[in-house]
Amino acid sequence: MAGFSDTNPSGAIVRQSWRVANLAHFMTRNARRFADRPGFVWGERSWTWREIDAGVSALAAALAARGLSKGDRLLVHSKNSEEMFFSMFAAFRLGLVWVPTNFRLMPDEVVYLATASGAKGFLCHADFPDHARAVAEGAPNVGFVWAMSARGAPPFGEASLAERIAAQAGVSMRDAAVLYDDPCWFFFTSGTTGRSKAAVLTHGQMAFVITKSSRRSVARDRRRRSRPGRRAAEARRRRASARCSGARRGDHPAADGEVRCRRGLAPRRAIPIASPTCSPCRRS
For residue 265, which of 85, 204, 224, 244 is within the disulfide window of CB 3.0 to 4.6 Å? Predict the structure, then answer.
């Protein structure tokens, strides 16, 4: 692959493959392990992992039927919503590059992102018809526009995202094979001092972040849920409440010449007579 050396320095271990897990495998795995557990909550509604995986596959199948394939860019202009969440993993599953925008951008700015990214499809929230119209007219590389979060008939574009997902319900899609350096996300900068520029996030980078975060959270949850862990934490709290970290000046020194807490509690450490008193002893 470009950017990596195949040479074998003395004593070095040469990597044999740059293959990594597709980020959408996160959905596939959880759908198998936690099928009926809630995986996504939005407003008053929740989706199980099985429902999420099925919706992601249906949307990926709809995008594939519209002509998108691995490496193509999918522009998404939307407020936070369940369909935006589904669009991200559907893009990953198909091997597309997900290109989200800031929904506060003006129509002409979104047109620039559409042309700069080379997007072939545009998913636009129903609240932004001007943006959809501007991209359809000003970005000839965009082949279709679908409306997101549309209630009833779509206000613009070929169809609504909900219609496309419903049309492909039950279709199973395999995760596209990806390499470490395959891009999965164009993260455009804010463009404060000039035109926005895309920071390229790859499957390898994001897989590392997700794996590290998942392992830490799982280990932390296991420690919290374990009975020995709870007992140890409670014992630490009891010991902390039963210790005095200071001593009241003027108390009688012990045989070793150090002052003990006048309440009779065990000191956390040896306290010289000249040390300041602890707040519990000052109050007593």
Answer: 244
